[in-house]
Structures are given as structure tokens and as C-alpha cells.
Amino acid sequence: MGLRIVMLGAPGAGKGTQAETIAANYGLPHISTGDIFRKHLKEGTDLGKQVQGYLNSGALVPDDLTCSIVADRLTQADCAAGYILDGFPRSQVQAEALTSLLDKKGEQITLAIDVDVPDAEIIVRLSARRSCAVCGAIYNLKFKAPKGEAGKCDRPGCAGDLIQREDDKPDTICQRLNVYHETTEPIIAYYKEKGLLHSVPASGLTPDQVYGEIETILKASKTV
User: Fold this and answer.
1) Integer Cα distance of 83 and 109 in angstroms
2) How far is it, in rounded angstroms, from Cα 35 to Cα 18?
3) How far apart are CA 23 and CA 46, in angstroms?
4) What is the reported pTM?
5) Catalytic positions
6) Residue 4's Cα: distance from chain center in Å?
7) Whole-angstrom distance, CA of residue 126 vs CA of residue 145
8) Do 23 and 120 form a contact (C-beta atoms < 8 A)?
9) Whose C-alpha in 44, 117, 130, 153 is 20 to 30 A from the C-alpha of 224?
10) End-to-end alpha-carbon separation of the chain, Å?
11) Nearest CA-CA partner of 83 in 64, 107, 66, 60
């Protein structure tokens, strides 16, 4: 049975960073709905145009649209041995749709890992986040600032300007957190009832320290 992980946590909790680390260490695809949406935004596709308004306002992309995108992604060959889902599911409807989809394939989620960080700390974190306007690399002025010229991407051959996305500005962050508590947080109870939830208190911890806690959980899993 493959390792199928759902990463949970409020926006800015660091679940994306942890998902990338797990994916790299275990050789699994990191499936981020945010990355998929931003790719379409950058390319100006019809999907990107649909998503633009939702992302800028801090609202969730509609369930049917998100579910269809993820369902298509999970049919690809690299998902056969497992995957890390980051940013999906984001609602009870999406969680139930994912369970139904996997049931039909005779599969199930292995673990749901909740990276738990208080709202006040998240607001500080996200307000300091910057994105490269050229390659899309993510930085944080508090924790992961570019090592070269200030305000410039330091990826080899890039040097694009770093910008603050609309959804990382304080007013939108508060809206995103409100949406999370109302719509996404109930998923924690959903996976807890299924006996799949593992919560990692991450306040004040470095990404490496948080991963250390997650690694303990993964090693205790019967599938690792």
C-alpha cells in the first residue's frame, strides 16, 4: 500500500514546506492545488481566469472545480505509489469526495497531518512572505530571505523582483483565516473520527524541528 498523506493546517502554517520535504525524502509527488492554480494564473488559461478572483479575495475555489482537477492529477502514473496532498481537501465536501474517489479505487488516505500554528503567528509569517514575479519562488523575510540582493530572487539565472501577493496582505490574511476556521478546520474532526489524524504543534518551531516531529509520525506508520 502506498503512502497517501493529507497535509492540514491554516494558510501560512508551513504545511507546504513540510509536504515538499516529505515528498523529497520519500520519493513521492507533492501535489499542491495552490501551485496548480498559480501555474494556470501565470499562463493566463481559462482556468487561471476563473481562479484569479477567488485567490485575490481570500475565498476558496469552488469544490467541484478543485475536485475535478485533483481527481485528474491522481490518475497520473507518478501517483501509483502514493503522494502528498497539500491544500486539498479544503472543505468537508472535498474530504468526502476524496474518500469516495479512493474507495472506488480500493485505496485510502494513510495519514492526515495537521500543522498547528496560532492565528497571530500566522499573520506575522504571511505578511513577511514574498514571491518571485518571474519564477514563482517563495521567500519569507523573517525565515527564508534571499541570500543575495535584497528584493531579488536568488535562484540561479533568475534575479526576478520579489512581490507581495494580494493574498499575503494583512486584510486578506484575516479573511483567509476566517474562511479556514469556518470551512477547512472541520476536516480535522473528520479525519480524527477516521483515526487518521496526527496533530503537530508547530508554534515557535523551525521547519526542521517541525519535520522532526512529522518524521517520528511517519516512522511509526505501518506503511513506512
Assistant:
1) 10
2) 15
3) 29
4) 0.79
5) 15, 90, 129, 165, 176
6) 14
7) 13
8) no
9) 117
10) 10
11) 107
